[in-house]
User: Fold this.
Amino acid sequence: MSEHWSGERSRYGKTIKVDNGIKARSKRGDIGATWWSRRFIEVLESFGMGGRLTRGRTYARQGQVLSLSLSTSMVIALVQGSRPTPYKTRIAIKAFTTPEWQRIEHALAGKALYAAKLLAGEMPSDIETLFASLGLQLFPATQRELTMDCTCPDWEVPCKHLAAACYLLAESFDNDPFEILAWRGRSREDLLERLRTLRGATRAVAAREEAPPLTKCLDTFWQKQTATSLTLGDPTAVVRADAVLDQLDAVPITVGRSDLVLLLRPAYLSLPPDRGPEGAGS
Assistant:
């Protein structure tokens, strides 16, 4: 501990108590109720911060943290110490780049269960494996990936003010696992919207792939539509009148601002049954 810090401590005396601060829910023992919040604390401890982290546990439980806010790459907390003016702490991590997030989103979109678990407030147990398969780490792998600082005169990192903020950050991950992803650069709303878009595109491609080739249904194409799908290899199956539109290329064709397939589909579906080969000469 520096002489400057010793002098500051003797000058300002005891910690100023706070009435309406943010208190950790945990009253004793470890902080973190879920595997992902405990994993975050374990990561910090693996960097050799364990002993220094415990200094802030009492602060977190006493409610010395006045505010805690999370945004892309940055967590900022105000912590009341022994000075009249609260200390400002910052915990920063590098956000994933746009190309990295595109890879993550495609991987998540391919696993519907992941989005379902996140929406239920649960981080999928094997999500770190998914990130690792992309060459990425959800949690920081080295201390260099984290930047911590505090306006207090203590030279140690983390000081007890930063440590208190880390514990409350872990509990915020308990409340909403999306916060971990938001810290890495994707808000809950943006991520879910992107996953909906990607999964919608996947379903559209799958629907096109399920439609039978036109060459396999020439004999039955003009028959009256009585079913919505065709079982390949079944000569009795009836083909949708608009099935030919499903053979168009995956890249949309537009007329003005409208999709050509959407414009044509109602017309195909309205074709009368007697327009087929059997009724063409009647």
The first strand starts at residue 65 and ends at 71. The mean pLDDT is 79.
